[in-house]
Design a protein that fits this description.
Chain lengths: ~270, ~200
């Protein structure tokens, strides 16, 4: 005598696929003698076609559009700040090797100095460094947003940058444009900042490795000791503190404010 | 354009191609989600999330199955996760056995379904939806896949990462659960067919 559990599998499976002759014989024989399973079999036979009455339920109107607009939103966010979080973290690791960092307050967000790359050399305008993090305002944006306000020397042949990256190499205190020269089309002048950089360097008597220019509308960190430079204020901060400062504002907001035309470098003095 | 071509374009970032994939699959995914969680808003969220996750994970989609199947798996798993998280279901997995006291005993006459007009079909659909909802999530899931979507045992096994034997057995038990649920719900039969189900009081 076959047990009812085994027969249940046959009853169910018969609804989905043909049973073998042996299985069918087994089932028939059991059903002939077991009323409970016979009833069950009749019920399940009726149930399957009934379920076919349940049709697809249409998704609400505009479903696809809603999903697509969310996708586009997220795609745009990525485009504005490609891979920021991992990139910033990576940079921090590299940056940890640095002894100190100099922050200039009063300009737009613009990094100036060295970003060591994976192999330890200066990153210059490397692809990897282009367009990431708060330091990624392109000089084109930088210039368009307020270059006319600059009163600093017009020609600083030492320093140029392409629109793709924001780095300017000052390897070993020897400013050089050799590896950051952009094409004629996208080369823009960033002399104002280079001038600040030079003035800071001469003030310090050495070449600072990392210099940041912060937007005027960025809340200024108060817990650092500001010193007056030659027409600007600067502060020397250590790694942990610099980390806090950068974390205290949103890189994206900073980037946007630079693009939107806020450019106050002249107000430094 | 075939699904494969649309997927290839979408992988390159073509939102319009992905839009086509959404349109092709949205009703099926939404139906699944709604039947699984029963709350229209949650079902909407879950289906949208499933498509978003599919978009984000397109690079991981190697084409071993169809996109529709892959998407269905994302949605199906999302629904199960959701139900587990929400703990909306309390009476899960009734042990289904022909030896227990469930209404499978011999004296209960067989169910028949003979809806004679649209109103009766509508009632029957509602009855079935209600009964489905009272099943465990796992049973509901396999019944939807098998009975409503017509997937084979093998396809369901692939989708849910289950052995085919497990799928067969789960479907069998899910069917019995559904049948028992319908019996417990009382005499729902429209059209007064030749059936008299033991009527039970429903609170």
């Amino acid at each position: 005598m076959v047990d009812c559990d085994r027969v249940l599998d046959l009853i169910s499976r018969r609804l989905d696929e043909p049973l073998s002759a042996g299985e069918q014989a087994l089932l028939d024989s059991h059903l002939a003698s077991c009323e409970s399973c016979r009833t069950l079999s009749q019920d399940l036979n009726a149930l399957s076609p009934a379920l076919s009455l349940l049709s697809e339920i249409p998704a609400p109107e505009g479903f696809a559009d809603r999903v697509l607009s969310r996708i586009r939103e997220e795609t745009q966010e990525k485009a504005v700040s490609p891979a920021r979080p991992p990139s910033r973290r990576t940079h921090w690791k590299h940056w940890a090797a640095m002894a100190a960092c100099f922050v200039l307050i009063g300009g737009t967000a613009y990094r100036f100095g060295l970003w060591p790359t994976q192999n330890g050399s200066a990153s210059g305008t490397s692809e990897a460094d282009a367009g990431v993090g708060i330091e990624s305002i392109s000089p084109a944006q930088f210039n368009a947003s307020g270059g006319e306000s600059c009163v600093l020397p017009e020609n600083d042949p030492q320093v140029k940058s392409s629109s793709r990256g924001a780095n300017i190499d000052h390897t070993a205190g020897n400013p050089s444009a050799s590896d950051v020269e952009g094409t004629a089309e996208d080369a823009v002048q960033v002399q104002p900042l280079s001038d600040y950089y030079s003035r800071l360097a001469s003030l310090l008597g050495e070449t600072p490795q990392q210099v940041y220019f912060l937007t005027a509308d960025t809340p200024l960190p108060q817990d650092v000791s500001w010193q007056e430079g030659d027409g600007f204020f600067y502060a020397q901060v250590e790694e942990a503190q610099f980390s806090q400062i950068l974390q205290s504002f949103d890189g994206e907001t900073l980037l946007s404010s630079g693009i939107s035309g806020t450019f106050y470098i002249i107000s430094i003095s | 354009m075939t699904e494969q071509e649309l997927v290839a374009l979408a992988k390159q970032g073509d939102c319009d191609a992905f839009g086509q994939l959404i349109i092709q699959n949205q009703n099926r995914i939404y139906s699944l989600a709604l039947r699984m969680v029963r709350h229209p808003e949650d079902a909407l969220d879950l289906s949208q999330e499933s498509f978003l996750n599919a978009w984000k994970g397109l690079k991981q989609f190697k084409g071993d199955s169809s996109f529709a199947t892959w998407l269905y798996r994302l949605a199906s798993n999302a629904c199960i996760d959701y139900l587990r998280r929400q703990k909306k279901r309390q009476a899960l997995e009734q042990a289904v056995s022909l030896d227990d006291d469930s209404p499978t005993q011999a004296h209960i006459p067989a169910l028949t379904f003979n809806p004679q007009d649209e109103l009766e079909r509508k009632e029957l659909r509602q009855t079935l939806e209600d009964a489905l909802w009272h099943l465990s999530a796992e049973h509901r899931q396999v019944l939807i896949l098998r009975e409503l979507d017509g997937l084979s045992y093998q396809e369901i096994g692939d989708l849910l990462s289950l052995q085919v034997g497990t799928v067969k057995s789960r479907i069998a038990r899910a069917r019995v659960s559904l049948r028992n649920q319908l019996l417990q719900q009382g005499n729902f039969l429209p059209g007064g067919a030749s059936i008299s189900i033991e009527k039970k009081e429903r609170e």
